[in-house]
Amino acid sequence: QVETLKAKLLEQAQEISRLRSELGGTDAEKHRDLLAAENERLRQEMKALEGELQRQQQAPCRDCPHLQENAELQEQLSQLQREAEETRARLVELDLEVQQKTNRLAEVELRLKDSLAERAEEEERLSRRLRDSQETIASLKSQPQQIKYIIKTVEVESAKVKQALCETQSRNQYLQEQVGMQKQVLKEMEQQLQSSQKMEAQLRAQIMMYEAELERAHGQMLEEMQAMEDEKNHAIEEAFSRAQVEMKAVHENLAGVRTNLLTLQPALRTLTHDYNSLKRQVRDFPLLLQETLRSARAEISQAIEEVHSTNRELLRKYRRELQLRKKCHNELVRLKGNIRVFGRVRPITKEDGEGPEAANAVTFDADDDAVLHLLHKGKQVSFELDKVFPPQASQEEVFQEVQALVTSCIDGYNVCIFAYGQTGAGKTYTMEGTAANPGINQRALQLLFSEVRGKAADWDYTITVSAAEIYNEALRDLLGKEPQEKLEIKLCPDGSGQLYVPGLTEFRVQSVEDINKVFEFGHIKRVTECTNLNEHSSRSHALLIVTVRGLDRSTGLRTTGKLNLVDLAGSERVGRSGAEGSRLREAQHINKSLSALGDVIYALRSRQGHVPFRNSKLTYLLQDSLSGDSKTLMMVQVSPAEKNTSETLCSLKFAERVRSVELGPVSRKAELGSWPSQEHLEVLKTLLGDSPGSSAPAGRGHASPSPGQLSSRSASIRRKLHTSG
């Protein structure tokens, strides 16, 4: 029961604290009523201010300076309206809060009534129990005397009676102990009741104190609102008075302006008269000006037309002379056997970086497509080649310039096209290209197939392809089963002085699909690595050898042409490329072979008796192409970036030296075959001038030609065939 009573006391304390927190509801209602009255008063003042502002706006002061003050007042008015709206919203929130607190207070009152009723019942029950306990204690107090009396009177009875007496005494002692315990419990309950009453009194005092604080805070808030209202009224009065003063000043300014206007009217009339006279003069002036301009324009147009016609004639003559000069130069190059040199400039790429180092240092001549200019260390250096391709030139445009050399391979001439330049300049792209935009190699073979199909009615052609690379001064077969096997370069045993590579694999190609397979097979085995200058740097010299063998079915004439397409590895500076280990050894071999190529070009240019072809596998393999028995074209690739100007300068200087080399006239590889058939005999008779119908059948009565006559006729036929070829 004591524990239950403690729990109920705790619940009552919680209810009292909740009531203490909820008692502010009535104050909130009062505060809401006050705010509502204040809001109504502010609304009335706002309406009055709006009426005053409307009256001021209706006054004739549209262009007055106090409009800004009116705008400020309107802004203050809109701010007051916003504050009123905020006050309304706050009132709505307070209404909701008061309603919620009222509902909660009603619930708390009901719970308090229930708890008070339960407490009254509990107190009543405890009081009844207390009374019962007191009665029990009183009855127990009266019983021991009777027991003593009995003990005294029956003291000499039997042992059984003594035993009963002892039990009664022990029971009496137990009851006394129970009575003591009940008294102690009752005392503790009375103390708890007193403490709860004291706590209730303290809580009531705190509630009264909180109510007083709420009243004081409410009074302070009302005083602050009154002060704000006074400040607002004072500000409105000051603004109104200031607006009146400014209105008065504006009216005075208007009066001054009107006076000035009255004084300025005579001057305006004078100016108007002067303006009309000037206007009449200006009206007559355009006629004279137009006449003068018309005559001047006619003279200028005539002079410009004469200059244009002269310029057009000069430009036409210059272009005709330029074409004639180029034609004569090409013919001179053909007759002398010079190495033709084309230059190609790659575009600026993201690998060149950004900033001054990636600036374009190469410019072109608008009137001459064989000249380019290089800006090196602040100085412009000009170079003249046979043809220069700008960065926007396509693969098709480049191939159009070299296709004449490629087709001469079908006629029995040896042709060599090799790309030279620093690493990353675009040599492999020019020679091989990509699958979507092929380079010279694949386009050359496609052109050969096209020419072969065009001559298929009279000629039988066989096209074979070989691919090799020179890696670290070792010649390797890219199409062989053992690409690591080193090959050697030897002289042909037929005494022709030509070079060949024993064991080099040859594939016969008959279609473009065969070409793609060969290129893919060879490209996989070629050595490429990543350096600081080029992500896919070629680490070897690649050589594509295309051999075209033809047979004229009508004359038996046999031709053999060879097309060497060489993609040289790029020269590089070890410090810039960051080559180490095997890359460093590769770079050393590449630079050594290119240096040997430079020595060969120098010896050829200076017409030395000994040309060091055997100093390198590269120059030894290119001996046929550089010794006067081949049509040779060098495609020099350069980078336009500012940071590569040193390498670009070296490449272009080397190209000029190569361009000045004279190899002599080129010979054609053709020989006359046997005449095994009757058709060949008919052709022979036709070439000798005999008609087919004049030849008599061979018989006993006709003498056969002598061996001398046959040998003389054979020599004559060979001369005619050579002349017609």
TrEMBL record:
Residues 716-725 have a biased composition (Basic residues). GO terms for cellular component: adherens junction; centrosome; cytoplasmic vesicle membrane; kinesin complex; microtubule. It holds the Pfam family Kinesin. One of its GO terms (biological process) is microtubule-based movement. SMART domains: KISc (SM00129). Residues 688-725 are annotated as: Disordered. PROSITE patterns: KINESIN_MOTOR_1, KINESIN_MOTOR_2. GO terms for molecular function: ATP binding; microtubule binding; microtubule motor activity. The keyword ATP-binding applies. It is found in: Cell junction, Adherens junction; Cytoplasm, Cytoskeleton, Microtubule organizing center, Centrosome; Cytoplasmic vesicle membrane. Residues 2-143, 186-238 form a coiled coil. Residues 706-715 have a biased composition (Polar residues). It is a peripheral membrane protein. Keywords: ATP-binding, Cell junction, Coiled coil, Cytoplasm, Cytoplasmic vesicle, Cytoskeleton, Membrane, Microtubule, Motor protein, Nucleotide-binding, Phosphoprotein. InterPro entries: Kinesin-like_fam, Kinesin_motor_CS, Kinesin_motor_dom, Kinesin_motor_dom_sf, P-loop_NTPase. The keyword Glycoprotein does not apply. Residues 338-661 form the Kinesin motor domain. Its main location: other. It comes from the Eukaryota. Gene3D superfamilies: Kinesin motor domain. ATP binds at G421, Q422, T423, G424, A425, G426, K427, T428. Minus-end microtubule-dependent motor protein. Involved in apically targeted transport. Required for zonula adherens maintenance. Belongs to the TRAFAC class myosin-kinesin ATPase superfamily. Kinesin family. This is Kinesin-like protein. It comes from Rhodinocichla rosea. The lineage of its organism: Eukaryota, Metazoa, Chordata, Craniata, Vertebrata.
